[in-house]
Amino acid sequence: MASPRLNVGILGATGMVGQQFVLQLAGHPWFRIAWLGASQRSEGKKYRDLAWRLSTPLPDEVTDLTVEAPIPGRAPRLVFSALDASVAEDLERDFAAAGHIVVSNARNYRMEQFVPLLIPEVNPDHLKLIPIQQKSKGWTGAIVTNPNCAAVVLAMALAAVRQFEPKMVTITTLQAVSGAGYPGVASLDIVGNVIPFIDGEEEKIESETKKILGSLRSDRVEPHPMVLSAQTTRVPIVDGHTEMVSVSFGTKPSHDDLIAAFSQFSGRPQKQGLPSAPARPIICLTQPNRPQPRLDVEREKGMAVFIGRVRPCPVLDYKFVALGHNTVRGAAGAAVLNAELMMAEALLD
Ligand code: NAP
Fold this sequence. Notes:
Elements: E1 6-11, H1 16-25, E2 31-37, H2 60-63, E3 67-68, E4 78-81, H3 85-97, E5 101-104, H4 129-137, E6 142-145, H5 151-160, E7 166-175, H6 187-190, H7 201-212, E8 215-217, E9 220-222, E10 227-234, E11 241-249, H8 255-264, H9 268-272, E12 282-284, H10 293-296, E13 305-312, E14 318-324, H11 328-344
Parallel strand pairs: 1-2, 1-4, 2-3, 4-5, 5-6, 7-10, 12-13
Antiparallel strand pairs: 7-11, 8-9, 11-14, 13-14
The structure holds NADP nicotinamide-adenine-dinucleotide phosphate (NAP).
């Protein structure tokens, strides 16, 4: 593929997701980290002098880079955004208007009509919104988003079984503390506790999942008609969102057909051999006590969704447990896979 590696930047490079971006992009075969941006708190500092909070050592590739102010024009054309949502709206718009391709994690533009909310295995056709977005906004750049970290796990699971026409879905999440950024939830609030409220999360899961599974109609996505009800909780887990899901179908599959659909699910990233694509996007676990965050979430470099306990549901048709890595498949890894798909489809030329 591309040689030499394409220079890329990271907006919000110092946060939980920004640090995951650094890990995902260091040594990447197609991309090379050339620019890091963050707030005035970090501006002017060498990246090695800032607090590194991941267990994998800081990659050599970034140690000497100096964190810059988030000013469009100085960064490479392709920038990944891990900006705090309070500043992402203005900054991402300014970067896209100035000609940057912004591959974003932030929530701000996910539900905009002309913005792809992309999971490469699920809705690669939604990238067709990009030229419509550029025309309507008058931008030479563009914004492409990845889903909320809990929505991506659910959307991948439902995409694998969409041929059976999901009608009603209930989901209860047990979400890791890394999903709240750094420093996130106060330790005295979360240690030994469950917090049954994550501001805005239930609405995001409900609306984003329907957009991701929706149908592209010329200049907009028609949301999937399923009825979806989400409840979200924060639990004292470092990484990995666990989700308890029940689903009813228009065409109820057999138990074997449902397992086969999960296990055989595959998409364009697998066909194209994209560098960050897991061999299998969904891994079905048969042990009755799996998936578990501690045992499973780091497998497949955090890019697969793990599904277990698939069984009949006396209220809806089937229920199961799903698990995904919130800062990898739910954030930085998802965005890198989005950019890889765009590169493979010649959208970054
Ligand atoms: P975080 O740890 O709080 O990091 C926020 C980043 O934004 C930091 O790099 C911070 O820089 C930067 N920033 C804040 N104000 C800024 C300003 N005025 N100008 C420029 N940069 C500024 O948050 P996070 O968990 O990494 O999340 C980042 C984004 O990804 C959020 O929009 C979040 O909703 C989304 N997201 C997070 C997850 C997850 O699992 N954590 C999953 C999916 C999506 P300084 O360090 O210099 O302050």
